[in-house]
Amino acid sequence: MNRQEAESLLAQWIENENLQLHCRMVANAMEAYARKLGKDEHTAHQWWLAGLLHDLDWEKQPDAHPNHALEHVFPQTDLPESVIGAIRAHAPERTGVEPDTEIERFLFACDELSGFMHAVSLMRPDGFSGMKAKSVTKKLKDKRFAANVNREDIRKGAELIDTDLNDHILFLAGVFEKSG
User: Fold this and answer.
1) Whether 171 contacts 36, CB under 8 Å
2) Cα dihedral across residues 103, 49, 116, 148: positive or negative
3) What is the pLDDT of residue 180?
4) pTM (predicted TM-score)
């Protein structure tokens, strides 16, 4: 599946612009991590696909997410099993599959934190520009701020990719600042 086909699938399933933005942010984060880890172009593209399509059925099938897409949408595509596996493992409480492979661990690590960081960026006059890890971790302590974001998943994600949470935050802030 090329980028245009993936974007078309995203537009077909998700109308909400904020959810589309979230998916694109996670896709950019995944691709950036793949490049940082020295992955080839093909693999970096797969990581981007996993990020872009991970919440494909969230808007139309929230109670069945991500199982609806896993059972009814992705089998009709040419998505690689590594991408499908990562999407399956990004929601272990819904699928029973814990993130194990590298792509699975990174998707899990980028998902919740990307959404949280977007919420933080909206509170800042310069968005992601100059965002410090401290400003994000301070907001993480405020349980009322972005209350629907699972803080434990954010911590677990950093552990899964063997990265200090502050370093993970700073890396993503840089990615999101560049991707605008």
Assistant:
1) yes
2) negative
3) 66
4) 0.95
